[in-house]
Design brief:
Layout lengths: L21 H8 L4 E3 L5 H22 L13 E4 L9 E4 L4 E4 L8 H17 L10 H6 L8 H14 L9 H13 L7 H14 L17 H4 L6 H22 L2
Parallel strand pairs: 1-2, 2-4
Antiparallel strand pairs: 3-4
């Protein structure tokens, strides 16, 4: 049987001890659709629903977002134990705009994959139209694509700037340099991809939030082999990035909630 009883969470009690369902998750967080795999037992679904609900509620709390906005105006769907990829904790499928959590290995990757979904969602709203199909805001920003003039987009740009550039100049940040070094070490082109750098920076900020600890939402950005190798921003850098995130997401939540 799954799971996840071993994941010890510290944070607010949003459910007041009540059992929730995946339908509750859909309605509370504004997903367009929620699917549960046919091989997920009733007991597994019961346990997972509470874990996913608490994790999404924690994410909304940390970002000062109304919970209903996490579904990105009902453009994002959620799958649990359905349509996953073998050996992958979780993934975001851009073609269907679906965030999929693996039944037995989905824990710890939710924050990372939510950023991918958001990065995709906001691209055509923050940047002028592009000829290509699938685009993420982080890629467009780094390629100097023109942004739509709007105060929120200026704040979004600031998130990318403080994450990817050094404070003093237009040079890459230490975090970016470390990501490039990791790609060279492992002979890959993964760690320094803008979409992945931003997703790791985002989840690192979420895990460093002092008042909440939720290893189902995010784990491994502070204590892990990759963390020791510099795959995530250091604690000082996280504070700067988190400040930029809050300066963006607070007013965005107000806009999405209208």
């Amino acid at each position: 049987m799954l799971i996840h009883q071993q994941y010890i969470r510290q944070g607010p009690d949003y459910r007041f001890g009540e059992q929730v369902t995946f339908l509750d998750i859909k309605q509370t967080f504004g997903f367009s659709h929620v699917r549960v795999g046919r091989w997920v037992t009733r007991e597994e679904s019961r346990i997972a629903a509470n874990l996913v609900f608490d994790s999404l509620a924690d994410l909304a709390f940390i970002l000062n977002l109304p919970p209903l906005t996490l579904g990105l105006r009902q453009s994002l769907s959620l799958a649990f134990g359905h349509g996953g990829q073998k050996g992958v904790q979780a993934h975001y499928a851009p073609a269907s705009r679906e965030l999929a959590l693996a039944k037995n290995a989905g824990a710890g990757a939710l924050a990372h994959e939510f950023w991918h979904a958001f990065d995709h969602y906001v691209a055509d709203k923050a940047f002028l139209p592009q000829a290509k199909g699938f685009q993420c805001a982080s890629d467009l920003w780094l390629s100097d694509t023109s942004m739509v003039e709007h105060p929120l987009n200026q704040r979004l740009s600031e998130i990318f700037r403080v994450t990817l550039l050094s404070p003093e100049s237009a040079e890459p940040s230490d975090y970016v340099r470390q990501a490039i070094a990791l790609d060279k070490r492992y002979a890959t082109q993964y760690f320094s991809r803008p979409t992945e750098m931003m997703a790791r920076a985002f989840e690192a900020c979420i895990e460093s939030y002092q008042d909440i600890a939720n290893p189902y939402l995010v784990s491994g950005t502070r204590i892990s082999a990759l963390a020791r190798e510099g795959a995530y921003p250091d604690e000082h850098h996280r504070k700067t990035i988190f400040s930029a995130l809050i300066n963006y997401f607070e007013p965005l939540g107000i806009a999405l909630g209208k």
